[in-house]
Specification:
- 26% of the residues lie in helices and 38% in strands.
- The chain has 277 residues and is α+β, with helices and mostly antiparallel strands.
- Strand 11 and strand 12 form a beta hairpin.
- The chain is elongated and about 70 Å long.
- The termini are far apart.
- The N terminus is likely disordered.
Length: 277
């Protein structure tokens, strides 16, 4: 077997050193590429990394979610099974000092439904912290803050020329025919809310003695599925105090739904259920 020359060995070592010395921006770019492919390249993150997401509904109410690396990878894989994901950093600001770095970025995301071809778009600001360990930058935390409906992201972070280049079909015309404050009925939306796990949903129905069709001995009530997929008890005027308590527990026990869709946008939708008297 022929031994490699000293020159070739030097080139290989130099190449490995360059890869190990990838900048924080390189690592962040690799992270967006991996999540756009429908999974998380976990080697880019520390094992104890935390990912947090702040979501605002149409009236500005916020919800905070927190994920471990494995939980976030699971969320991305679920998202990728339904949509083609494209994440595009528009403006990045990077600061490094010693073994610590921060990357602050505006992100344009497009989600294309794999079945219908419908396109959903969203803008966010993301703050990523990295730590260098043994010449390797790894992400230690990510904060994803979606655009607030009353406080648009500044033009400095979302320049029109960049946004138009990456999102040529994001004009507001596609969203003028629905009311962001309205709670729609199932016959008023293009796609009704869908629960992600039918078996788990059946278990929740049995646990709280809830059915989806009118039966003797059951009282009707409504659950609203928000644009973010979270369920809330919305109308229970005919329920007893005990029934209300169980109906609220029923709503809290559910996983996040796939929300209703109207004109290529997620909207609030009201679902009718019946609970045992």
């Amino acid at each position: 077997m022929t031994r490699p020359t000293t020159f070739i060995c030097s080139l290989l070592l130099a190449s490995a050193h360059v890869q190990a010395q990838q900048s924080p921006i390189d690592r962040v770019d690799a992270f967006y590429e991996s999540t756009s492919s429908g999974s998380v390249e976990t080697d880019l993150l520390r094992t104890d990394a935390v990912i947090r997401s702040i979501h605002y509904d149409s009236v500005g109410n916020s919800s905070l979610n927190s994920f471990t690396v494995s939980e976030f990878d699971h969320e991305i894989k679920n998202l990728g099974s339904v949509f083609e994901i494209k994440q595009t950093p528009l403006v990045l600001v990077e600061r490094s000092y010693g073994n610590v770095a921060s990357v602050y970025s505006s992100i344009y995301m497009s989600l294309k439904d794999r079945e219908s071809g419908e396109l959903l778009n969203a803008n966010s600001i993301q703050s990523i912290k990295l730590i260098r360990d043994a010449d390797q930058w790894k992400i230690s935390s990510i904060l994803i803050q979606n655009e607030h409906p009353s406080y648009p992201i500044s033009a400095d972070m979302l320049p029109d020329e960049l946004l138009e280049h990456y999102a040529p079909n994001t004009s507001s015309e596609a969203f003028e025919t629905y009311d962001t404050l309205q709670v729609y009925k199932v016959n008023e939306v293009d796609e009704i809310p869908v629960y992600p796990d039918q078996g788990a949903f059946d278990d929740v129905l049995r646990t709280y003695e809830v059915v989806t069709e009118d039966q003797p001995g059951y009282t009707p009530f409504f659950i609203t599925i928000g644009e973010d997929g979270f369920a809330t008890l919305s109308y229970a005027h005919d329920l007893s105090a005990f029934q209300i308590q169980r109906a609220e527990s029923f709503a809290r026990s559910m996983l996040v739904w796939y929300p209703a869709i109207k004109n290529a946008a997620s909207v609030k939708c009201r679902l009718l259920f019946y609970i045992r008297e």
